[in-house]
Amino acid sequence: MTPDGGAWSGGLHHLPVRVYYEDTDFTGVVYYANYLKFLERGRTDALRMAGVSHSDLLALDPPLGFAVRQLSVEYLAPARIDDALVVETRFETARGARMVIAQRILRGDAVLLTAQVEAACIDLDGRPRRLPAVMVDAIARASSRGG
């Protein structure tokens, strides 16, 4: 478990997120763009728990990072102020210069949002780079962990 409370189980990474006032619009419902922040936290924590930190990627030669290339989101139900949510992350593929990640945001058993994210590995000039083998291996190990 991370200090943020994230953990891998059954091939899925789970990150608890609380909805704060700053996340909502004037009606107390989470503003649609803020769900993307929750998803980003889930992906980042999943990578960190798999053994891949952004600071380690920046220390490589050449330094590497990620850019979201494609994102598909389906909003199913609203989250509201004070809700306790879980961001669920599953790496579907990690090969070449890209990763495909399936994510959901849940409140209890209710699925509030589903997302499919394609992220490209890039250098600091924005050129695509192969995912480092150590990262692909770390993601495969974490994704295959039983619950």
From TrEMBL:
Pfam families: 4HBT. GO terms for molecular function: fatty acyl-CoA hydrolase activity. Keywords: Hydrolase. The keyword Membrane does not apply. CDD domains: 4HBT. It comes from the Bacteria. Residues 28-110 form the Thioesterase domain. The keyword Coiled coil does not apply. InterPro entries: 4-hydroxybenzoyl-CoA_TE, HotDog_dom_sf, Thioestr_dom, Tol-Pal_acyl-CoA_thioesterase, YbgC/YbaW. Gene3D superfamilies: Hotdog Thioesterase. SUPFAM superfamilies: Thioesterase/thiol ester dehydrase-isomerase. NCBIfam families: thio_ybgC, YbgC/FadM family acyl-CoA thioesterase. PANTHER family: 4-HYDROXYBENZOYL-COA THIOESTERASE FAMILY MEMBER, ACYL-COA THIOESTER HYDROLASE YBGC. Belongs to the 4-hydroxybenzoyl-CoA thioesterase family. This is Tol-pal system-associated acyl-CoA thioesterase. The gene is ybgC.
